[in-house]
Amino acid sequence: MPTNSRAWWHEAVVYQIYVRSFADADGDGLGDLAGVRSRLDHLESLGVDVIWLTPFYPSPMADNGYDVSDYEAVDPRFGSEGDLDDLIADIHRRGMRVIIDVVLNHTSIDHPWFVESRSTRSSSRRDWYIWRPPRDGVEPGTPGAEPTNWLGFFAQPTWTYDEESGEYYLHLFAPEQPDLNWENQEVRQALYAMLRRWLARGVDGFRLDVINLISKRYPLQDVPTPHSSHYGDASSQYTCGPRMLEFLDELRDQVFDTAEKTLLTVGEMPGATVEDGLAVTGGERPRLSMIFTFEHMDVDHAPGWGGRYEPRPFDLLALKSTMARWQEGLGRSGWNSLYFGNHDQARVASRFGSRSPAHAVASAKMLATVLHLHRGTPYVYQGDEIGMRNYPFASIEQFADIDAHNSWAYGRALGVLPERLLAGLRQNGRDNARTPMQWDASEHGGFTTGTPWLPLNPNTSEVNVEAQIDDADSVLAHYRRLIELRHSSDIVVFGDYRLLARDHEYLYAFERTLGDERWIVVANFSDEELDVAAALGGAVGAAELILGTHHEPPEGAVLQRLRPWEAQICRVLKGSEQ
């Protein structure tokens, strides 16, 4: 049962697999479940405890599988039911666990529930989705006739007109992803039954896609709009809505607490505050094990509709402040998830790391060190463990992502220059994270013998697993050491956190304490050497290096000086504190 006492997932490291881009076993250019199984040796040697599989369900693929048409089957593109059962069994045999991605806010338009819902207004499943009549006095199906003026996540109006039934249905994402009506108890019970069947099949938990959007604020109302658009940001109308906690309580009581094992449950919660995170992960009976927050991943985004694709320079002060606020806010009462990368985020090495090729390896190792030494459960996104970077997209035609193409069209309609839009997509577009995994230096990086669905990064010949597997100074080797450190050190898992040098422009420093043990982590976010002692306001006492990103530091350099993009994890020796 999930509680705020010590649980196995406190000490775990999770590895996210974007199935279609991880490994292709049948040569069709698309990753599959058999491909994942063929690469389990890599994950076992890395030392991770949990494998998170992104959607492998039948889907029209409007949003790469997050538009689910059958919650309980395997899309033939990814393999068979037997492939999935074999993969789960093999993961368990190796002492790892598996969690699956479930999309409970919406389905595909091809899901039988929606097909029946739209068939007629009198359908028994009409109320399983959110239907509304056109706005009075406006021609149905024309701009402005939508029931509300909401702009969705993919830069589209959130309502699509269904001519057959004469009403609009709500979709916060693509038109192919209609939102389920969680106010309908039958919907909730159908979803809970589906999740219980997955538990019976052997999974060890769930990643809950946009779970904080399930409770809308009724009645649905218009929102303010910018002068240049008919549509506006409606996140206040559906983010962490009035019944969210009630729904999560029900989900915990009827699904999670019925399991015979302690589950890992992580909720994706865009727009959530620290207070929301504490309400969901804190208390005697947490609703979820942890959540994914987004604030720290917005520190290189501009505000506004297209902030993600109108990048601004990376702001270390904002990153430190945001991370510290969540560390302190959840404290000992809740629990953090720790991530810098996933299938919806561009590569962190390109976003937060050095722009200089000379420091590419160092900055990838440094970023991993900073992340893994915070309090919470770390997530490794495939390829980050070898320092994969953004793809050099040259045109909008090279992108596959629906969000990229919709944002491009919306931006152009508002008069944004193509070169400005392309610069934003090149830096922060989701396809940067979706280029295939780089296994070796062969033609298609060992990902496939066919033509990959997205091209591999041109740096694959240098940045790949095979090139790093026996290199003690590689990014991969450093990830192994960080994961081993977490497994062997209670202070990494449970130690208190305090941010140091909060206002320093280049130094990221914090301490972890447990009992009378004190560790200090220091990291240099610059291409120049950094005087740590001066930045910390003086000596902190004698210290020993536990783990660093570089070769052994020069004599006297521990907690004193950092080379470019270097990080040190240091134990302050007892009795030496200043």
What are the SSEs and their pairings?
Elements: E1 14-17, H1 33-38, H2 40-46, E2 50-53, H3 81-93, E3 97-103, H4 112-119, E4 131-132, E5 150-151, E6 159-162, E7 167-170, H5 185-200, E8 205-209, E9 232-233, H6 244-254, E10 264-268, H7 274-281, E11 290-292, H8 316-330, E12 337-338, H9 348-351, H10 360-372, E13 377-381, H11 402-413, H12 418-428, H13 465-468, H14 475-488, H15 490-494, E14 496-500, E15 507-514, E16 517-524, E17 530-531, H16 532-535, E18 543-548, E19 561-562, E20 567-572
Parallel strand pairs: 1-2, 1-13, 2-3, 3-8, 5-9, 8-10, 10-11, 12-13
Antiparallel strand pairs: 4-7, 6-7, 14-15, 15-16, 16-20, 17-19, 18-20
> How much strand content do the residues show?
5-15%
Please report the number of helical segments: 16
Helix fraction?
25-40%
Radius of gyration based on Cα positions = 24 Å
Reported for the largest beta sheet, the result is: 8 strands, parallel
What does this structure look like?
Belongs to the glycosyl hydrolase 13 family. By secondary structure, the protein is of the alpha/beta class. The chain has helices at residues 33-38, 40-46, 81-93, 112-119, 185-200, 244-254, 274-281, 316-330, 348-351, 360-372, 402-413, 418-428, 465-468, 475-488, 490-494, 532-535; strands at 14-17, 50-53, 97-103, 131-132, 150-151, 159-162, 167-170, 205-209, 232-233, 264-268, 290-292, 337-338, 377-381, 496-500, 507-514, 517-524, 530-531, 543-548, 561-562, 567-572. The strands form 5 sheets. An 8-stranded parallel β-sheet has the order 11-10-8-3-2-1-13-12. A 5-stranded antiparallel β-sheet has the order 14-15-16-20-18. A 3-stranded antiparallel β-sheet has the order 4-7-6, with no helix packed on it. Strand 15 (507-514) and strand 16 (517-524) form a beta hairpin.
